[in-house]
């Protein structure tokens, strides 16, 4: 939505508040929209407006990044306003979801956004993954990409690129040596198939068959394929453990998040030291998409829950055997046995 003047913006905000208040009274049985969610929504709108007004001069603005920015932002709630909560302003994140892509990073931040003490940056900022571009803009540029928050709230951002980009771990450590990092993973074979479904959707089906991409001409796993190699999680996690303490990194099981989100979210809440506020009553299972959705904000976009490719069992077996020793190394580093299939 274009914003032509501050007056237009104010009118829009006031009108939206009135509409939501009316909706609140029409839903007084408690099943409607909560005050805190309304106010957090308005905070998001104000964030977008001020971010637009703070852009660099024409020609200096980096391109928009991330796959979920606008849509995710429109769905997210807003923390309650009022009381002695300090100053409402942009704060740098104290928690980051660093990856892994196609393991549930969007689902996780979508669910965390329902928490009144958590506010999330829209889209994927990629500040630490681009040393010569975004990172060079400095912390004030980064701060302006963050939402407005109160002192009792945590700002979190999600950029899966951070996990795999060389040097990202060092740049994050340089920024904040005590930051909380969240890594969500799943069976690397399942992740690889999920990534293929995503790429096929983005490219409108104009992509090589899955088997041709992941298996070379000799019948072995194609180690030249970037997405294949991304499934060797321990290599990337090792870079983070060289600078961060293990207890600064929460490793989340992406499959468990999809199957039963609340217990996983409770672990994240404990890790971030916020109240346990997200409950099962805030979710419903969407049979069509095959995953849990928010009662208030609905499901994520159409690019989530895509139909996966039918892969021959022989190919699955080759991939599992390839990843098996690497998975064991990952288990050692994390102290978690995910028990992913080995055959």
TrEMBL record:
The active site is at 102 (for sulfotransferase activity). Residues 94-295 form the Sulfotransferase domain. The chain crosses the membrane at residues 7-26. InterPro entries: NST/OST (IPR037359), P-loop_NTPase (IPR027417), Sulfotransferase_dom (IPR000863). Disulfide bonds join 293-299. Keywords: Disulfide bond, Glycoprotein, Membrane, Transferase, Transmembrane, Transmembrane helix. The keyword Magnesium does not apply. 3'-phosphoadenylyl sulfate binds at residues 194, 292, 304-308. This is Sulfotransferase domain-containing protein. It comes from Meganyctiphanes norvegica (Northern krill).
């Amino acid at each position: 939505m274009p914003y032509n003047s501050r007056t237009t913006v104010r009118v829009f905000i006031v009108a939206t508040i009135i509409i939501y208040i009316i909706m609140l009274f029409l839903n007084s049985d408690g099943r409607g929209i909560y005050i805190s969610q309304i106010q957090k929504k308005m905070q998001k709108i104000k964030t977008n407006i001020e971010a637009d007004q703070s852009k660099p001069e024409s020609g200096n603005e980096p391109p928009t990044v991330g796959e979920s920015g606008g849509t995710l932002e429109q769905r997210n709630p807003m923390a309650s306003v009022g009381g002695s909560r300090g100053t409402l302003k942009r704060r740098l994140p104290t928690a980051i979801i660093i990856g892994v892509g196609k393991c549930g990073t969007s689902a996780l931040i979508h669910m965390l956004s329902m928490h009144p003490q958590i506010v999330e940056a829209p889209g994927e900022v990629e500040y630490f993954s681009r040393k010569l571009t975004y990172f060079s803009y400095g912390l004030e540029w980064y701060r302006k990409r963050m939402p407005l928050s109160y002192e009792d709230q945590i700002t979190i951002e999600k950029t899966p690129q951070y996990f795999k980009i060389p040097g990202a771990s060092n740049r994050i450590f340089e920024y904040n040596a005590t930051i909380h990092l969240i890594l969500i993973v799943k069976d690397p074979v399942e992740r690889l198939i999920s990534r293929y479904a995503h790429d096929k959707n983005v490219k409108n089906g104009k992509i090589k068959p899955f088997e041709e991409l992941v298996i070379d001409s000799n019948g072995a796993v194609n180690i030249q394929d970037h997405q294949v190699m991304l499934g060797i999680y321990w290599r990337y996690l090792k870079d983070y453990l060289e600078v961060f303490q293990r207890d600064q990194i929460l490793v989340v099981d992406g499959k468990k998040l999809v199957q039963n989100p609340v217990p996983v979210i409770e672990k994240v809440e404990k890790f971030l030291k916020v109240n346990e506020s997200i409950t099962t009553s805030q979710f419903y299972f969407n049979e069509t998409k095959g995953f849990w959705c928010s009662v208030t904000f609905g499901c994520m976009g159409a690019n989530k829950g895509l139909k996966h490719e039918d892969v021959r069992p022989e190919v699955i077996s080759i991939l599992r055997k390839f990843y098996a020793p690497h998975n064991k190394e990952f288990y050692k580093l994390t102290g978690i046995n995910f028990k992913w299939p080995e055959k």
